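Dear colleagues,

As part of the handover before I leave the project, I'm documenting each prediction I ran so the next person doesn't have to rerun anything. This entry is a single chain, and its sequence is reproduced below.
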Amino acid sequence: MGEKISVLIISSKKDSAGKNIKEAILDLSDWEEINVFNKNPVYKNPKLRDVYMITINDETIKHENLDKEIEKKLNIKPKQAIFISKHKSESGKPTLTTHPIGNYGEAKFGGKTKTLTEASPKLMTELLRIIKKNAEIKKTYHQVCFEVTHHGPYLNIPTLFTEVGSTEEEWIKKTPAKIIGKSVLELLDKYHYEMDISKDIPVLIGIGGGHYAPRFTDIIFEKKVAFGHMIPTYQIKNGNINRGIIEKTIDATPNITGVYLHKKSLKKSQVTEYKKFFEERNLPVVSSKELTDL
């Protein structure tokens, strides 16, 4: 077992947005080079307790069990992972995002098939709010939003991704990378782990809607709430969502208190079916009216 309980910030040499975010983080705060991991410097921040930043040589989404590797090679026991990365999409939409990871279906992009990594609902939600604030200060044109749960890698600790999307043109720009970097530092200045954030914040899983989780994103900017894993409508249409995978979604969302259904994106029969399922699980289906304003 490693000695130092820690937060890991992870970037990849293969990821131009991740490299830019890492450079911004190094510029915006003091870091000490303390070790080497796979021939890359390991940085420790003396002002932020137990925060380390590492770089990997391969793609972030395919580097499985990184937490175990870090523990073995560096004698550091990671307790929380934050990946700084690029987001790629066919739409090319300029975005600044956070999201949990895992696969509802086949693992085509890292991770394990039908397996989710534990989410960081409160940290991830708080980070997205900070990104929105910093994006507004910079008057950037990027959409600030969640992405639903998708892709790998698989880790054994709570993990979140924060990304610049969605084209090479955006990944190499300094401003969006600096917004993400500054926001990560602001988050870690206040909180390191889920337990550091107030227990009275409801934690929900979300079901329905598109990849950029429009309804769940809107709610967190208005209400006192956090989202963990999110299931989009396309995963339901693909036939990947059944009782078993919903149970996994619940289990991989720590401190879960309820469920939010994006009803407009679901069939009435689906809403009825989900409500019955969660009623049997004693997990309330929550409406936005029941949530406290920020």
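The chain has a mean pLDDT of 96. The chain has two domains: 4-196, 203-290.

All the best with the project,
I.
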